[in-house]
Write a structure and sequence with these properties.
The complex is a heterodimer of chains A (about 170) and B (about 575). Chain A is α+β, with helices and mostly antiparallel strands. Chain A has 4 helices and 10 strands. Classes of the chains: A alpha+beta (about 170), B alpha/beta (about 575).
Amino acid sequence: MSEHIIAAIVEHKPGVLFKITNLIRRRGFNISSISVGSTENPDLARITMVVTGDETTIEQVAKQLQKIVEVIRISRLNPSESVIRELLLVKVHVADSRARSDIVSYTQIFRGRIVDVSSDSMVIEVTGGSNKINAFIELMRQYGIKELARTGITALARGERGSRALD
Amino acid sequence: MVRMTGAKALVESLKREGVRVVFGLPGGAILPVYDILHDETELRHILVRHEQCAAHMADGYARASGRVGVCMATSGPGATNLTTGIATAYMDSSPVVAITGQVPTSMIGKDAFQEADVVGIMTPITKHCFQPRSAKDIPRVVKEAFYIASTGRPGPVLIDLPRDVQQLEADMEFPENVKLPGYNPKLEPHPLQVKKAAKLLIEAERPFILAGGGVRLSGAYMELIAIAELLQAPIGTTLMGKGTVPEDHPLCVGGVGMHGGVANKVICEADVILAVGVRFSDRTTGRFDSFCPEAKIIHIDIDSAEINKNIRAHIPIVADAKKALNAIRDEILCCTSKSNINRSEWIKRVKETVEAAKGYLECEGGKLTAPAVIREMRRLMPRNSILVTEVGQNQMWAYLHFKALMPSGYITSGGLGTMGFGFPASMGAKIARPDLPVVDLAGDGSFLMTEQDLATSIVEDIPVTVVVLNNGVLGMVAQWQRLFYRRRYSHVHLGRIPDFVKLAEAYGADGVKVENLDDFKEAFTNALRNDVTTVIDVLIDPEEDVLPMIPPGGSLKDMIWRR
């Protein structure tokens, strides 16, 4: 069992996300993240999913999704040949000026940005692969995480090649 | 462009799709469409007594005719009553278009009177759902709905029509073609896969052809027989494939699966299985991991998601069954000639196996048992006639004992196993083929689920014959309780009520009770000639099992032949 990235190019219409998530639920597939957004074509949206399962399961997920009429293309992204990013927003408790300066320098090391500051908290934005995000969250735990939001990953194949289409 | 209301455009679009009959029942949210139907002369509307029957009738019509069946209902309860029929059609890949009324767009989401999230309910049991929000979309939506329902792997499609969308006027354009960028059924087989399949089939020593519902949907009957004769391979069918080869063909060995017969033995000896238009249902294969482990499998299906879903294919071919079979046959004939293929040993072995099993399927002479009744039915029905079954013992007895001799000669709810399907589906089949005798083989339990539509059969003049194998129990459940739950009969006794003769007569149908085989023969002969529906109440022994069978969780080799 391992994690696989599946990208779906779909028609930008009401109800498509429902169909996809409903299909995943009813066939008993496991997804750990799903993100949706627009593409270069205003009529199309891109849905990126991280699916857990063996090869047979992933093949089934892809083929079942392909059957949805509004799904134009399903592709699988090979992590080593793809750019994978996730956005993290985390609100951290700031107890004193020492904590504040530590958090600022960690944020710089992670090439993050401080997007909101109050007397006893900061909101930090970090983008990157899931491992980097996980590492940053671990570092922030010692200060006290008040709230946290991750977008789930989105991804594109590197270079000239598009995402590998199935069949 | 023509200016008209959405309701008018719907009816106009249906006629452009060649629809001649709609099965339905009106209600508030679909009134604008029914107002148009009031003056309609080209489109026959058949008023049902329960919407579930409208869906089953449309399904039966589709299966018997090969055309799209259309059913209609109002919003809320009307639509939810359709769902059993729609799920049935979905599981058996039957092309049905369901049209439901919906509350006006301004009321959607407000929990209005008779509002239900029909698109939400139907999405998992349809191939596609539409809910047009503007009247001018209706002609395009109908075009796309029929295209999606009837092409690729067929299936039901829903059109949910808010009432205001039916009422509003628009300048309508009726498109000739569809534009669906995400929907491109693959029909042509991959040449390389065809080559591999041909090679494997030539080299096979003991080839077996497993024919499923896809053969019927593709109309690949001649191609199936041609390749079987070329390869000298026995043909077994799945439940949905029954009838795709006439079952008196010398190469046909009958049905495979939980209540298959000798075909289960034959398939276990095969070294190569050519599976055409099957989805390897668990009822066909038994335990997945012990399904013919030594055989190499060539799997032809138009739905690529069926490949490797339940059974791993050695050579998958995603294509239309007819095109794939033709291509494989051409390829075989390219490599070798018919006279070079000699399978006499294998055919001899198959014939011996069939002979050896014959005794198990014989009936005791003269007694009124279900198999004897079904064999008499076969003898008395013309070659071209349609048997529709309910679900349970009646269905499986017919699977074992009724030889289907024409395509669509055996119509049954296979995937969903819907009790109550048979009677309305038989009426749908009769509408599609008024020239043929249509018989519903029922159990008392199943028939009671949809018998109220005897009214439809009388009022709309749709004569069918209903043979009720009346054992006073939910027979298949009782059989499982007998065999696997130590005869603990939990809630299966129906009490032999109602009196089916009186029930039939109450609706204006004919009813006959029979208690011996001779009486049955006479009643059945009369029923086939009758111009009103006949219900024949056949009293059989509640202890009778459908055998052979494969116990739940068993493999094809674990057949139980005798109690």
